[in-house]
Design a protein that fits this description.
The protein is α/β, with parallel strands linked by helices. Helices cover 57% and strands 10% of the residues.
Length: 542
């Protein structure tokens, strides 16, 4: 009796502790919107948010995407983390996929995004539903959209699961045989339980998460009063009864009830039967599962977009045109604090000049990411944008590859070659090309000659828009009749460098690099020698 009393007390304390943490978590979830915060701050080092993208690619022969070089150039990993306010694994998978394949025609329901933004009661209920699904490491739930899970079922497990019950039943006839069978079956089943769990942990987690997705999709449908979806998923009404078996172990060992429940599952091999029940559900309701997956992921994505928009100084919805042009008003980069907006008409291929830190690279990235944002998220960090749909390719942040024994220049050559290959293999879609400091890994004479040749060639390619930044003023003169020149400028006032970060027409005609030697405190001898040498070089060219 004493031990029963202790178990009751410990269980009661565990329930109260769980209630406390549940309320604390709920309070946190309800505060996220006002604080512009995300629920999960931990970085996913395993990049499981790439699952949908990988699964789609496996089922497509050719798939035009933002490739890894462009992704790196535009710092889209950091942007993804900044935008990612999703509650669920599938929400962030869909967000990542859309950023990787922005040119595809994606579904946007702005009324739903608006409802999330304006209707607090609806947003609160939706947040609690989505957070209950949450994020599951290694849960590759999207693969079952494209391939059926293995449905092979070993019937011997039915007998093994019944053996403990048979043992208890035999006790009335023979205590020794009954207890022997009972304890032996417990040992065998527990061994099989943990062997199967460790061997198929990722598969188990994925399929258990799939069932939770199905349940979540129905809860969202009820919230949205989507009777059509509820009818389509009526066969899944039994799922909530099986979902109670999806409770996981308590790694802290403090939840006695959960620990006892896990032991019970291991004795009767319940996870094995639940696993194959979910397989049965998905294999026999594959279209319904895909619909449930996408509806749940999309509403989570809409929440993320809505909260991201709330954090921005301003934004707009894109407009589209078919005349191979882009016009942006007060466009800015989303990662820049206190950004300066710029207007730009990208109707002609463009060359940008100006000193370092004047804003050239940031401006190029601003235009590139806004093309991606517009198509992927129906959002532009500007007051207005009008553009033609197309792919984005860049060659900007090259580096030496020590492991491959590859120089900076060779890395840049390969990066540019892939743009040529893409242009030659895909003539129909508009290609936006962005380049920064082309061929800076080699000497001045060859750099200018090679850059001029590349830019000249690309200028004659149809359906191609090029924006390139350079320090080589010679290029602005050589390509003056083909590329429109723009520049960024800094001023030196009272020995202080001032940047306005505003784009201006024409090529840069200021030379302040040597003056910066004096301002930053280099020895006067170094500064004067540089001034005189610059004069000599300039006179020799005249």
């Amino acid at each position: 009796m004493f031990y029963v009393f202790i178990i009751v007390i410990v269980s009661g304390i565990a329930v109260l502790v769980n209630m406390y943490y549940s309320r604390k978590r709920k309070k946190l979830i309800l505060s996220l919107w006002d604080k512009n915060e995300k629920l999960d701050h931990t970085e996913n080092f395993h990049e499981t948010f790439t699952y949908l993208y990988e699964n789609v690619n496996l089922n497509k022969e050719k798939n035009a995407v933002v490739d890894h070089i462009t992704w790196h150039d535009l710092n889209l990993t950091k942007i993804f983390k900044t935008i990612n306010f999703t509650f669920t694994s599938i929400g962030e998978e869909l967000l990542y996929y859309r950023l990787k394949a922005p040119h595809e025609t994606h579904l946007f329901e702005e009324k739903k995004i608006e409802k999330i933004s304006l209707n607090k009661e609806y947003r609160t209920k939706l947040s609690l539903i989505l957070s209950a699904l949450g994020k599951a490491p290694y849960a590759n739930s999207s693969k079952y959209i494209y391939a059926k899970p293995d449905s092979s079922f070993n019937k011997i497990y039915i007998l093994l699961g019944l053996l403990p019950i048979i043992g208890l039943a035999i006790i009335g006839l023979s205590l020794q045989i009954g207890l022997g069978l009972f304890f032996i079956s417990i040992l065998v089943n527990s061994f099989l339980f943990y062997i199967n769990r460790s061997k198929n942990e990722a598969e188990y987690e994925s399929l258990f998460y799939c069932l939770t997705i199905l349940l979540t999709s129905r809860n969202i449908a009820k919230l949205n009063q989507d009777t059509d979806f509820l009818k389509k998923t009526s066969k899944l009404k039994s799922a909530p009864f099986i979902s109670v078996f999806l409770l996981k172990d308590d790694p802290t060992g403090t939840n006695l009830i959960l620990q006892l429940f896990t032991i019970l599952k291991s004795i009767f091999l319940i996870d094995y039967f639940v696993f194959h029940y979910i397989v049965y559900l998905i294999n026999n309701n594959s279209q319904t599962y895909e619909l449930a997956w996408r509806k749940t992921a999309e509403i989570d994505l809409y929440y993320s977009i809505a909260l991201w928009r709330k954090t921005l100084p301003y934004y707009c919805l894109p407009e589209y045109t078919d005349n191979d042009s882009l016009t942006i008003v007060n466009g800015y980069h989303p990662l820049v604090s206190n950004p300066v907006g710029n207007d730009f008409d990208f109707t002609q291929n463009s060359l940008l000049t100006g000193s370092n830190a004047s804003g050239k690279s940031t401006f190029i990235k601003t235009i590139a990411v806004n093309i991606i944002f517009s198509q992927a998220l129906n959002t532009s960090t500007s007051h207005k944008i009008r553009l033609t749909r197309g792919e984005v390719y860049s060659s900007m942040a090259m580096s030496d590859d020590i492991e491959k024994g590859q120089s900076y220049f060779l890395s840049e050559i390969k990066a540019l070659k892939r743009i040529f290959d893409r242009r030659n293999n895909s003539s129909d879609m508009l290609l936006y090309v962005f380049m920064d400091e082309i061929f800076k890994g080699t000497n001045t004479m060859e750099r200018v000659a090679a850059a001029e040749s590349v830019l000249e060639y690309l200028n004659h390619c149809s359906n191609t828009k090029i924006m390139a930044a350079t320090h080589d003023i010679e290029l602005t003169e050589m390509l003056n009749d083909k590329y429109k020149n723009y520049h960024f400028r800094e001023q030196i006032v009272d020995d202080e460098i001032i940047f306005d970060f505003l784009i201006k027409e024409g090529a840069s005609n200021t030379r302040n690099a040597i003056e910066l030697l004096r301002i930053t405190g280099f020895p006067e001898k170094v500064y004067l020698h540089a001034v005189n040498k610059a004069k000599e070089l300039n006179n020799s060219l005249i």
